[in-house]
Amino acid sequence: MEKNCEGILSSIVTDDVIQGSKVLNSGGLVAFPTETVYGLGADAANPEAVSRIFKAKGRPADHPLIVHISQVKDIDLWAVDVPKEAWRLAERFWPGPFTLILKRHSSVHNLITGGQDTVGLRVPAHPMALDLLQQFGRGIAAPSANRFGRVSPTEAAHVVEDLGGEIDLILDGGPCDIGVESTIMDFTSSKPVVLRPGWITKEALEEVLDSSISLRQGGAVRCPGQDLAHYSPRARVIVATSVEDLRAKVDEHFSSGARVAVMSSDLLENLPQEVMRVPFPKKLPEMARELYRSFRLADRLRADVVIAVCPATSGWGLTIADRLQRAAQGGLPLH
Length: 335
Ligand code: TXA
Ligand code: MG
Hints:
This protein is an alpha/beta fold.
């Protein structure tokens, strides 16, 4: 059955959390807001429901899902042998944009863990997500609510665009405050390691643990956010090292006939008139919040390439740089 966007909007987009909880209880898929990005949720204890997530996203079955829980002490329901450092970080950063990878409890379904002996856990901070978790009363398995490898949704309308026909209900909690996915920290290797940078920075984690932490550079744990081609718009993303480099790259692609967009807050005078502008804030927290919206705008403008300057890679800058670099590996031609 074909549904147009407005039809989908009026029939499945709501702010009724109780309805969301009922849909989850009956094995349905519910997209919901978190402070990072929208998640595509299913009852983590219902394998049929969880398998629908993989189908809707087109996600390979061996890629594990984060289980969202409502309180720190629920860690014990999902994980075993939890190190005291992990408890400390959970107490400090939950509810919040932080995911722990821990040794799984034997009751956790293989579909969630992608067949690994670990499980990802997070208590989100968005009030609607917490309300849904409390109403539902159990864990909700949820990846970002986008097609596999594509840009994560930061508004309910993005979920409608990407997956509207595949989902039973979309809870609309407004635009996400943070705009990029949670920091993921793995406690199952010999040393704790950050698998995915995010709002909670390496520096903030080190301060709580009072020891240095490494960032993952490749390794054995399967983590699709770590695949090179990820978080991509259709336009090819090109990362410039400076404004001068951006100008050179614009000239290069424009002269070869491409539809070029620049993601920048600078005025950038004297660019060819045809070069399209995608607003992109200068300050880091805003940059994160707007990053995926800017990618989507470049696609709406039917840009072949979108060029952005990479920020310095410390603190929050590392997260933006990480997502830009990964998107740059994965762009597909538009036509
Ligand atoms: O901010 C977020 O984390 C959002 C919101 C919805 O919570 N979720 C999210 O989920 O980004 P997803 O599936 O799009 O990305 C989660 C990442 C994936 O790269 C996944 O492989 C990794 O977490 N992950 C989940 N469980 C894991 C595990 N047991 N071991 C290693 N990586 C895991
Ligand atoms: Mg994702």
